[in-house]
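Problem 12. The chain below contains 129 residues. Write out its predicted structure in token notation.
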Amino acid sequence: QIQLAESGGGFVQDGGSLNLTCVASGFKYGRYAMGWFRRAPGPEHELEFVAAITMNTGETYYADSAKGRFAISRDSAKSAVHLQMNTLAPEDTAVYYCAHARSPAPPHAMGQTVAYDDWGQGTQVAVSS
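Solution.
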């Protein structure tokens, strides 16, 4: 059974930085990609794509809100991905979820939840103004 374990969330002030890590285990076959999604507080907010990376080639994908501030990287040997988040703002406050895609997906699908098969429990990020 594939398991994803997130860490690195916490509380920071406006403009601060955090580095999230997700470690995957329990694979029987190769992994295609891993990514991050987030859900902001409140029932009106849906799961929102943040960033993703393919494990073999290192190709990256970012939401517009993450470009220039966040950087995703991988450690294929450890089946881990990191999300370095800089210049955080209060609107980045959310629970961040790690996701794993078992099969290849076209680039336009990498930001969609349907491309991912496995999900972590989430780690809380709170940014104060």
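Discussion. The radius of gyration is 14 Å. Students who got a different answer should revisit the alignment rule from Section 12.3.
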